[in-house]
Amino acid sequence: MVDVQHWLSALPPGVIYLIVAGVIGVESMGVPLPGEIVLVSSALLAATGVVQPEWVAIAAATGAIVGDSIGYAVGRRGGRPLLQRLGRRFPKHLGPAHLARAEQSFARHGVWAVFFGRFVALLRILAGPLAGALHVPYRRFLVANAAGGLVWAFGTTYLLFYVGRAAEHWLKDISWAGLVLAVLAGLVSTAWLRRRAKRLGPVETPDQAEPVGATER
């Protein structure tokens, strides 16, 4: 992430906003790209004054909402065979086990999987294409997609912006304070992600997962 942040810092602000929107948008279409790393790096750059946090958040939200919508359209047209082809192309990210877990989440939570999926790496990539392939009603998908994209983009950006500003202030006087903050943030985020993963439950095969249509009815 440090390398990404250093690379972005050498670019004009307008280019950074376009990269944030583009990477997150393509990731949301179903292609595993480091969208969250780009967002985090850009938010930390905003804390140093290189870019404006509101434009970073707007770019991230736009990329997330538009990318998910395109992914939905592609998934609805291509169906499950498309997801299987993506799994063969990216087996470490979208293999059969990943797809089964994502389907299980949709079967349990319906469109809420789209909203909360924005905060989980696997579902952030698969939410749009999978919702389209499983014929989730588009209006419900759009509401959950837009809400999740806005909360994720603005929440992540401004949280890291203020944390970065605070850490920069502390580091001027007490160098160990920034280190402690970074360690605590890492521990908290790791614990939260593990708890989220446990809540998803054990991975089921696609045949075992309950059809999404049954949940939506």
Automatic annotation (TrEMBL):
The keyword Transmembrane applies. Signal peptide: none annotated. Keywords: Cell membrane, Membrane, Transmembrane, Transmembrane helix. Residues 41-159 form the VTT domain. InterPro entries: DedA-like, VTT_dom. The chain crosses the membrane at residues 6-26, 141-162, 174-193. It is found in: Cell membrane. Its main location: membrane. It is a multi-pass membrane protein. PANTHER family: INNER MEMBRANE PROTEIN DEDA-RELATED, INNER MEMBRANE PROTEIN YABI. Belongs to the DedA family. This is DedA family protein. It comes from Micromonospora maritima. The lineage of its organism: Bacteria, Bacillati, Actinomycetota, Actinomycetes, Micromonosporales.
